[in-house]
Amino acid sequence: MTTTVTASSGSHAEVDPGHPPTSTGLSNEKVAMWAFLGSECLLFGSLISTYLLFKGQSQPGTIGPDDVFDIPYTSVSSFVLLMSSLTMVLSLAAIQRGDHRLTRVWILTTALLGASFVAGQAYEFTVFVREGMNLRVNLFSSSFFVLTGFHGAHVTIGVLMLLSLYSLSMRGKLPTSKAETVELVGLYWHFVDVVWIVIFTLIYLIP
Amino acid sequence: MAIVTPERPGSPALQQPLNAPVRFLRRPTGYTKGLWGWMTTVDHKKIGIMYSASAFIFFLIGGLEALLLRVQLGAPDQTFLRADTYNQLFTMHGTTMIFLVIMPLSAGLANYLLPLMIGARDVAFPRINAFGFWVFLVGGLFMYSSFFLGGAPNGGWFGYVPLSRNIPGHNMDYWAFGLQILGIASLTGAINLIVTVINMRAPGMSLMRMPIFVWMSLIAQFLLLFAIPVITVALFLLSFDRLFSTNFFNVAAGSDPLLWQHLFWLFGHPEVYILILPAMGIVSEVLPVFSRKPLFGYQVMVFSGIAIGFMGWGVWAHHMFASGLGPVAVSAFSASTMFIAVPTGVKIFNWISTMWRGKLTFTTPMMFAIGFVAMFTIGGLSGVTHGVVPGDTQQTDTYYIVAHFHYVLFGGSMFGLFAGAYYWYPKFAGRMLDERLGKIHFWLMFLGFNMTFGPFHILGLQGMPRRIYTYPEGRGWDVWNMVSTIGSFIIALSIAVFILNMWKNRKPQEVGDDPWDARTLEWTIPSPPPEYNFKEIPLVTSRDELWHRKYTEDEHGRSVRREVVAEQPKMEGTEVEPSGAEGNATPDHVDGEEAHEGSGEEHEEHIHMPSPSYWPLVTSLGLPVISYGMIYKTWAVAILGGVLTVASLYAWALEPATAPEDTPVHGPDTSGDDLEAVPA
Amino acid sequence: MSGPTTRDEATGPVVEVPPEEGGTHHDHPGDWKYIKIALILAVITAVEVAFSYWEAVEGILAPSLIAMSILKFVMVVGYFMHLKFDSRLFRRLFVAGIALAIFCFTVMLTTFGVWSR
User: Fold this and answer.
1) What is the pLDDT of residues A42-97, one digit of tens each?
2) From CA B503, how far away is CA B242, in angstroms rounded?
3) Judging by beta carbons within 10 Å of its beta carbon (0-12, 13-18, 19+), is residue B237 exposed, middle or buried?
4) What burial class does residue B561 get, using C-beta atoms within 10 Å of its C-beta: 0-12 exposed, 13-18 middle, 19+ buried?
5) How close A133 comes to chain C (CA, Å)?
6) How many other C-beta atoms are found inside a 10 Å radius of the C-beta of residue A192?
7) Domains and CATH numbers, chain B
8) What average pLDDT does this structure show over B55-61?
9) pLDDT higher than 80, residue B215
10) Whether the Cβ atoms of residue B287 and residue B351 lie closer than 8 Å to each other
């Protein structure tokens, strides 16, 4: 932390030009977002560890992961989400260099990829339900649906935020000076992606 | 941002500008007054007052619940309360005192004081700050609505499963959803205050120059940041079990009830440090002022606070010693619990050392602060005895535990908060509380408190269990229960004295900036402060900045008053607004832009303050609607609530931080009718 | 419309890069970095999936999958979220959350004896 800060500071690349200088030179919103993401680690940690606690503990004879998981299918949707992180960071790079058309292309692509992920999950869930696995069957079904459901809800919120950014950009309300807004949405988006990286490995791949 | 301009007699400055856009509901501006002004405020000081006032009302309600419990338990075999009524009352007493009293009182003080203490004009996110308050209020009211809608929560404030999962009725649904709502308030508040302290300190205010209250509040916010998500998950899992028959806590399906206990106490233990650290911070402010000595061992106090916050994550299962964890686990947690007593003990020694050889003045805040040190020490000692596993196996679920946590939470947190109330009341309200009544309050409360909770140690060791609505005679518990009940009414009397004190002193007074001859920046500005806090952002050159401006040391190290207050110009001489009561302070016109270094510039510039907004309030209203819909499984209502919340969030996000009509262009004489939109 | 610009990764000021020095309208040198990282992530994912089918690695399946996912995690956080190049404060905030989560839940699961099932 700075011990002395001159009252009138020069421009900081991190700080939105419209904002007064901050003690660290970092923007308030970015500090807030990282703090929030830190807290989200505890949220998903609780859900994941609940799932892990229940792993293999469901009543014998009731439905289990081996009965329903379709690894190739889920691998594809994992890949989709991973690529959406790429398009997200590309949209940020685009807006930072002032290419707004490309920004919108990448934002929309990210939103579409995210929406595909959610749609894929939703379809996957309907298949599971048809195979006799609903929320209340056993420990596995409850913890699986709630964990992935929370994640899917986070992705959905992300898609809504992306579409909002798209709309703002279309209306000229997302100039380069507001690139940080895209960055913040991006941070949230990438976080949701890394949570899936963990979930995919721990829940789907590890037997 | 609102530009604050003065109310000059006869000036039309307070009229709405003629070219203000007409909307469905006009956005409030910096000039909006009255109830609507309060409901739409984003001023951290007003928000702090609202937090504190609401929390105090909940304190009275929680206290009433306690009195009812004590009436029932005052003698054996009473039928004043039925068992299920008793269960609701003790559940709500605990839930209220923790979530609706101590936390919001601490939040209210932190909200009011942190910006002032670090030399800022507001918190980092003023509208989110307002949102946090309204969510808290709405959450508390939602939870209390249960009394009228089938019965209040009745599964204990800690909601252990399988009981809380299986209790019929909606009582525990109100508990779960109510706490979820409150959690949102705490989490958003935590992020706000963390960013504020990290990023909005005045020039020269390094972290190690911040007042200890700022430090302790900051640590508590970090604890909230990481602990709230855990209880969020626990409550969701419980709600899903209750609403949708999931199996998280369904023993028949193979679940382990300890999962709830772990999740709850992973939150719950950091929570108790959240409850105590701000009060410790208050004491660390009050003792030095009334000892006329700096806090002993500032750095150690900071690091011990950090240590407590950090280590607090490693002790949670000491709440589960009797749950069958096994010898290895309980030994590990016993050791960690012993260790955490060290930084806590260090603080106690430092407080005593602060007073040692000081020039003590026993004002009311000082009495409460000293009371804190004594009572918290007692509570801490009983806590240490809980850390010894075989001992705890005897003590757990008895009144001995109830004694411990009331000594640390009432004798500790509440005494600390009362110290803060008396100490900062002149700053918030622009009037002094009566010292004589204050001391009567203190002594009555001290007597009543010890009469109520002291005997609990004995009762616990005599085997009286917790959470029983009555007990038979002949167990030897009768006398101490009666003593305790009498004590509880003495506490109630002391609070009546406090209320009387506030009532008697409701007329504004001229208290000046610094009635206590204090040490920190909030005492450099008028009482109550103007909306913008500081005419100029202060330049900080040391810890206890104000003290060093007022005093220097002679060759013997004694404090000597300076003839002229050092350095920073314009810190004195700011006039107190005599009509500044209730926080509806007239906006002042101010010279000097916030970024200038106190050079006393004459040219007219304006201090930009964020504009009020009603969106935080509206957004908060969506949350109970969702909750009612979920509890009664009326999905249309839940969805409606969700739509309301999301739509409000969008409207909020699209609303600029500054209303255009709050941005006059130049000069103090502007009448507001020749506005141009100026970029924020 | 201003010409193509580049921005060095350590959040320096925005600088104009004329086309002759490699700045182009649509394809920015920095973009390739991200695409490369995405390709690496895709490959790791493919390997993870392959491993889950491959009997030969069954003994070390869990640790190797965990290692690979940690690698992906660190790459996304470090490069896509730019944490590697940003202020240490952000890293501390995030790592605090992760460290706390891993510590507390590992201890919790240990008390349930999950490792010896």
Assistant:
1) 999 999 999 999 999 999 999 999 999 999 999 999 999 999 999 999 999 999 99
2) 46
3) buried
4) exposed
5) 23
6) 25
7) 27-42+621-680 (no CATH), 43-322+329-504 (1.20.210.10)
8) 98
9) yes
10) yes
Q: Which residues of B touch C87 (CB under 8 A)?
A: none
As a whole number of angstroms, the distance between CA A201 and CA A199 comes to: 5
Strand ranges (E), B498-605: 551-553, 559-561
Contact residues on chain B for A28, CB-CB shorter than 8 A: 124-125, 195, 199-200
DSSP chain A: --S---SS----TTS-TTSPP-SSSS-HHHHHHHHHHHHHHHHHHHHHHHHHHHTTTSPTTS--HHHH--HHHHHHHHHHHHHHHHHHHHHHHHHHTT-HHHHHHHHHHHHHHHHHHHHHHHHHHHHHHHTT--TTS-HHHHHHHHHHHHHHHHHHHHHHHHHHHHHHHHTT---GGGHHHHHHHHHHHHHHHHHHHHHIIIIII--
B462-486 burial: b if 16+ Cβ within 10 Å, else e: eebeeeebbbeeeeebeebbbbbbe
C45/A102 CB distance under 8 A: no
Whether C66 has its CB under 8 Å from any CB of chain B: the answer is: no
A vs C: CB pairs below 8 A: 146
Residue of B nearest to A9 (CA): B595
CB B552 within 8 A of CB B538: no
Cα B57 from chain centroid (whole Å): 14
C18 pLDDT exceeds 60? no
Say yes or no for a CB contact (<8 Å) between C61 and A207.
Answer: yes
Nearest CA in chain C to A100: C1
Q: Which of A7, A20, A141 is facing B597, going by the closest CB pair?
A: A7
d(CA B96, CA A163): 41
> What is the pLDDT, as a whole number, of residue B25?
66
| CB within 8 Å of chain C, chain A residues 56-85 | 56, 71-72, 75, 78-79, 82-83, 85
| Residue numbers in A near C55 (CB within 8 A) | none
The pLDDT mean for chain B works out to 89
CB contact under 8 A, B226 and C96: yes
| Minimal Cβ distance to B595: which of A2, A8, A22 | A8
User: pLDDT digit string (tens) for B98-112?
Assistant: 999 999 999 999 999
Segment 531-590 of chain B within 8 Å of chain A by CB: 537, 539
Cβ distance of A97 and C31 shorter than 8 Å: no
Q: From the candidates A50, A140, A141, which should be mutated to test the interface with B, based on the most B CB atoms within 10 A?
A: A50
Residues of A with CB under 8 A from a CB of B: 1-8, 18, 20-24, 26, 28, 31-32, 35-36, 38-40, 42-43, 46-47, 50, 53-54, 57-59, 135-136, 138-139, 141-143, 146, 164
**CA B558, CA B400: separation in Å to the nearest integer?**
46
pLDDT of res. B679: 39
Tens digits of per-residue pLDDT, B360-394?
A: 999 999 999 999 999 999 999 999 999 999 999 99
Q: Please report the pLDDT score of residue B435 as a whole number.
A: 96
H or E element, residue B61: helix B44-73
B72 three-state secondary structure: helix
Burial A148-162 (b: 16+ CB within 10 A, else e): bebbbebbbebbebb
pLDDT at residue A21, as a whole number:
85
Average pLDDT over residues C12-29: 46
Peptide bond into B664 cis (omega under 30): no
Domain A28-205 in CATH 1.20.120.80: yes
Interface of B with A in 149-178 (CB under 8 A): none
The minimum CA-CA distance between B323 and chain C, rounded to whole Å, is 12
